[in-house]
Every structure is written in C-alpha cells, then in structure tokens.
Amino acid sequence: MAASGLEPALELEHVESHLHPEPSYDVEAHPKPTGLEEIWRFTPLKRLRGLLDGPASAAKLALTEELPEGASLSAISRDEAKALGGIAPLDRLAALAVENAPEASLLSIDGELDAPVRLNWSGTASDQVVWGHTVVKVAPFAKATVLLDHVGSATYGSTVTYLVGDGAQLTVISLADWEDDAVHAVQNGVSVGRDAQVRFFEFTLGGDLVRSSTNVDYRGTGGSAELFGVYFADAGQHLEHRQFVDHTAPKTRSNVVYKGALQGQDAHTVWIGNVLIRKVAEGIETFEQNDNLVLTDGAKADSVPNLEIETGEIAGAGHASTTGRFDDEHLFYLQSRGIEETEARRLVVHGFFNDIIRRIGVEDLQERLTSAIEDELATVVGRLES
Q: GO biological process: what's one of them (predicted)?
C-alpha cells in the first residue's frame, strides 16, 4: 500500500500522445515551451510574467484557514510530499511549483467532517513570483468539503495534489477570484481510490491570466469523478481550463461540465477536455461537455473536446461543445411577457450558470458567486447600452 493510503498507480503501457505528456517531477523533462506545442498553443506565454523561467522565490501568499474537527494542516518537505504519491507534474509550470515552493502544505482529512475546510490564499502584489505546493490527503471512507479560495494580486505558480482514499467522498471548490492584475497557473492532480467519489468545482472570475490544468486518474475500480466549472471573462482576460481524465481502472466513471461567458474586447477563454480510456478500463462511462455564451463583440472562445479510446468494452463515452450568443427564442419568450431586454439577458445568463452553482451545497459561497456574476452582468449591460 502506498504512503497515501491509495493503491499504487498501475503499471500501464505508455501511450504516445501530444495531448498528455509523460508526468515527471524533473523540470528538465518539461522543456521551456515555444508556443507551438499542442498543450501551449493557446496560452499567451509572454503574459506569464517569467513563470516559465522558474525564478526561485521564498515569497508566500498569506494563508488563513478554518479547520473543522477531523482536518489538520501541516508543513512537510518537498521529498515527503513526493513520497505520498499522486499525479506527478504534466507540464513545466507544475514541475517548477513543486521544485521551487519553500515547503509543501499537507491537509489531512479523516472521518466525516461537519463543516467545510476553508483555505484562503491572499496576495498583495503581482510583481513578485510566488510558488505553492499543497497535498490534500483524504483517508479511506472519509467525507469532506474543501474550499480553496484565491484573492488579491499575485504571480502564482502552484500544484495541488489530491489523494482520495478508497470509499471516500470529497467535494472540492476551487475559486479564483483574483484582482485584474493577477497571473495564476495551477495543476490539480486528483487520484481517486476504489469506489471513491470526487466532485471538483472550479470557478474562475478574476485575474489577467489564469491557466488551470485538472488531471484525474483512478487507483481502483468503481471510482467516480465529476468536474464542474464556471468562468466569466471580461475585456482582455485570458482564462484557460484544461482537463485530462485518465481512466486507468475498469468500471470507473467521469463527467465533465464546464460553462463560460465572455464579454468585452479581447476577452479569451480556452477549454480543452481530454479523456483517455485505457485498454484495462473496461466497463467505464464518461461524458464531457463545454458550453460558452458570447455576450458582446470582440470576445473569443476556443473549445476542444477529445476522446482517446483503446478498448471497445465500455458502457458509454461522448462529448459535446457549444459556443454561441444569446438564444433569441429565450429572449423573445421573456420579452413577450413584459420583461425588459436587459433584465431578460440577466435572467438568461443566471439560468445558464445556475445548474452548476446550485450543486455546490455551501450557501454563503453560492450567494457570493451569484453576486459576482451579477456584477459582471452590470458591466455587460453598460456596454450594450453605450
């Protein structure tokens, strides 16, 4: 048994694919990109503010925490964090975060928690690079909700590793509510134990550039992973979300649903979804969906779903992607019942996102997200009226 309480990763045949490079903690195994590589071609490298150069830094973001009984937070060394296992870095930024973080933070969860764990990282300046490495270790049959909240100004490269024990139930809510000058690159690596259930929510509302990669593998049969995302890009923002679900065990399940809205000149969102179904992953079920709502001229959404299937013995697999403007029929229906156009547009956008927000189950956070979307919509209305 691995130190994390998970089964060790299965010895799997190497798959040649430009969509998911081989994981490695070695920074040199991830050459500095040129922008021509498939996993980098959408990212404006110059706007990463030198993160790819990997400057060492002892700087840290301010961290506050709320830890209910059954949860503990401690500092561990880089080597101790690696020894716990999990998904190694799949790109240079993630490897640099592990290598350069002054120390790693270990969040340990045991039992059924009666309140969410809340970790809040806050930055005060964007002109200094900060590196972070966090490991979330969930004991077998534990049940917990974890909120990771990011606010303020920063240039931040981070890796978060989730080790979800057999039979555990984990809900993660990762919120990027940065100021407009922030840059954040993060790899989330989620290893799902036998019969474990993971729900991973990602909400990206702020920042100049946010690049988030969420990778999932399975350490036993019967595991389930649901990935949900909401993002809202304003003028000039680049928000990029990448998912790689690696079905490494039979009878596992995954479901990915990300929804985004864009408004303003040069607002740009990128969603890349990739599911790999290995030869050993018989009887799995997977679906991925990305929907984008373009609210004004000058905004651009890129959406690329992928399926790589190595066995025909599966329960089901599919993907869907849509990008479009307001549904004229919805607007007409609302306006025909006396609702003004601006209010009708607001209601359509809220309905677009509400299906995901209502699933969170944390009331104060749901209210905060609804309010943040309302603020974004006020900007849209102002542009449409001007």
A: iron-sulfur cluster assembly
